[in-house]
Amino acid sequence: MTLGGLAELEHVLGADDLLALAERFEQGRISSRDAIRMIAAGLRGGGHDFDEDAVAKMKADGGVAGAIDIVARLLTATFDVRPGDAA
After folding, report:
1. Is 20 a domain residue?
2. Structural domain boundaries, residue 60
3. Where are the alpha helices (DSSP H) in 27-86?
């Protein structure tokens, strides 16, 4: 995820900084809306023009589990953490 995507997530999730954002995700509590926002930010960071509404309508291989896998991969690539990992 790009710094711009992270800044966007900080804003929409009300996190004060990157550490607060990482801590939020380490707790393993990610809502469906969080997942949509993260996937959209990741896609935009990769050069694709998708807004949250478009991402919300997408289907992932494996259904919800597949979408959560995408989020986990984004988190791992960005913070080297997985939801639920202890700090």
Report:
1. yes
2. 3-79
3. 32-45, 52-56, 63-79
What's the number of domains the chain is made of?
A: 1
66 located within any domain: yes
| Residue 34: how many other CB atoms lie within 10 Å | 17
pTM for the whole structure? 0.78
Look-up: residue for tokens 């984004």? 74
For residue 42, give Cα distances in angstroms to 28, 45, 82, 87: 19, 5, 16, 23
pLDDT in tens, 29-49: 788 998 999 899 989 888 899
78 contacts 6 by C-beta, under 8 angstroms: yes
Q: What's the half-sphere exposure (Cβ side, CA atoms, 13 Å) at 83?
A: 14
